[in-house]
Structure to design on (355 residues):
């Protein structure tokens, strides 16, 4: 795994990563985030290649009292609900997300990701294991992540590339 | 318990850098402490292969060696036990459980865990950890997700992984701590 780029929230716009190197096998996005909206939670929006391809996702989640599952179809972005604390949450609490895009440069198949994420606010919050699908065969060359009210300046997003073994190909 | 020395980031390639590994001693070690954690990485990544002398929880606690004097931890959990999925939450507590406890913990059946602690050296935000745990015992067991929060803006420089119920880690238990570099680290 190799670091590609890092970014911070600025409180006013989405976080973009462009010109993603095409020499890795997989991508991993690691987000520690908080939303700026006047609420106790905000959602994660994730778009690839600035495209309007058909996005869909499934979530398995626990909200502290029950476990549930849900899905979304025909979206213009991937949507993961109750992802981050927001402006009405206790100060300094953050949510964490790790997104893995597999075989992101392959142009023969649709792109899929797995997601582990959650936030705990000492009395509220949610943990989730999710999947995402984009029905495009194009290589992933850029993406953005966003949330309601934009990410705070305490938000950090790291992008990593994961190589195959040059020896075994594994 | 054997603690292997940390490795300087500059001599390594890639983002995931080994910091230390601890191995149970099979007789008395019920808590493995990682202290003097280097503050030069973006995230911490913990890989646990746990075998313990009896059934019971696997927990992360003693942040910055505070002796669990502060009830400023909380966590939200999601688990599947082979027949149903449930969720729960623990608030204002001293420890964060990485497992359901009652159904895991064995000297022969391993419990494995991966724990991510993001931006651990930051002094402006509370610390959030994500963990993913598996323990299958051929007819029982669990898969377990957890998001935990340590309500402190202090940089995380130490913590411990403990067994509950006075168990100890067997000699085949192995816990490895890694640093995850970002660019310019």
């Amino acid at each position: 795994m190799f670091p590609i780029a890092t970014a911070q929230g600025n409180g006013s716009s989405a976080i973009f990563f462009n010109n993603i190197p095409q020499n890795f096998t997989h991508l991993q996005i690691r987000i520690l985030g908080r939303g700026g909206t006047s609420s106790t939670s905000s959602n994660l929006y994730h778009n690839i290649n600035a495209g309007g391809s058909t996005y869909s996702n499934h979530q398995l989640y626990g909200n502290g009292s029950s476990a549930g599952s849900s899905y979304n179809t025909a979206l213009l972005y991937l949507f993961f609900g109750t992802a981050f604390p927001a402006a009405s949450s206790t100060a300094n609490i953050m949510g964490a997300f790790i997104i893995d895009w597999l075989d992101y440069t392959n142009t023969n198949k649709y792109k899929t990701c797995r997601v582990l994420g959650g936030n705990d606010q000492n009395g509220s919050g949610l943990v989730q294991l999710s999947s995402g699908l984009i029905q495009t065969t194009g290589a992933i060359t850029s993406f953005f992540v966003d949330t309601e009210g934009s990410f705070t300046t305490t938000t950090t997003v790291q992008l990593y590339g994961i190589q195959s073994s040059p020896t075994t190909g594994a | 318990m054997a603690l292997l020395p940390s490795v300087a980031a500059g001599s390594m390639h890639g983002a995931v850098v080994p910091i230390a590994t601890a191995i149970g001693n099979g007789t008395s070690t019920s808590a493995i402490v990682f202290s003097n954690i280097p503050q030069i990485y973006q995230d911490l990544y913990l890989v646990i292969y746990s075998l313990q002398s009896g059934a019971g929880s696997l927990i992360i606690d003693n942040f910055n060696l505070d002796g669990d004097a502060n009830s400023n931890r909380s966590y939200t959990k999601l688990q599947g036990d082979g027949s149903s999925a449930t969720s729960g939450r623990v608030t204002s507590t001293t420890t964060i459980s990485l497992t359901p406890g009652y159904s895991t913990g064995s000297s022969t059946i391993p419990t494995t865990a991966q724990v991510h602690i993001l931006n651990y050296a930051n002094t402006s935000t509370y610390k959030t950890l994500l963990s993913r745990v598996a323990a299958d015992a051929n007819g029982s067991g669990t898969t377990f997700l957890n998001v935990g929060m340590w309500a402190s803006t202090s940089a995380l420089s130490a913590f411990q992984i403990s067994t509950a119920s006075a168990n100890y880690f067997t000699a085949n238990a192995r816990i490895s701590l890694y640093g995850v570099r970002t660019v310019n680290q």
